[in-house]
Amino acid sequence: MAWIFLFLAGLFEIGWAVGLKYTDGLSRPLPTVLTAASMIASVVLLGLALRSIPLGTGYAVWTGIGTVGTVIFGILFLAEPATALRLGCVGLILAGIVGLKLLSNT
């Protein structure tokens, strides 16, 4: 269950990272409220996951999911570059996430 919490926390991290782009410096009420809700959900779920997942593993996976998801969102919806080198770096992050999960005892 902890890994499910961690995965969901990572998805909410993507939500608040993307949401920040649309808050216009926290001046737009609806995007700001949705972004804040995503932040809270992300941290609460991370906290639940860290009950049984080691801190370093949990934090690295959480930020990795957020990073990869945000980059993919940027490529798909914001016309950010999808160069081979950039995608290779994202692949390395994904490999790290999978490696940490496979090496975890939880």
From TrEMBL:
- Assigned keywords, A-Z: Cell membrane, Membrane, Transmembrane, Transmembrane helix, Transport
List, in alphabetical order, the GO biological process terms annotated in this UniProt record.
Answer: xenobiotic detoxification by transmembrane export across the plasma membrane
Q: Does the keyword Nucleus apply?
A: no
User: What is the protein's membrane topology class?
Assistant: Multi-pass membrane protein
Which Gene Ontology MF annotations are present?
transmembrane transporter activity
Q: Where in the cell is it found?
A: Cell membrane
- Which Pfam families does the entry link to? Multi_Drug_Res
| Keyword hit for ATP-binding | no
Q: Could you list the residue ranges that cross the membrane?
A: 33-50, 59-79, 85-103
Return the InterPro entries for the record. EmrE-like, Small_drug/metabolite_transptr, Small_multidrug_res
Per the record, the major location class is membrane
Q: Which SUPFAM superfamilies match?
A: Multidrug resistance efflux transporter EmrE (SSF103481)
An example GO CC term for this entry is: plasma membrane
Q: Which domain of life is it from?
A: Bacteria
Question: What family, per the record?
Answer: Belongs to the drug/metabolite transporter (DMT) superfamily. Small multidrug resistance (SMR) (TC 2.A.7.1) family. Gdx/SugE subfamily.
For this entry, the protein name equals Guanidinium exporter
Q: Which organism is it from?
A: Ruegeria arenilitoris
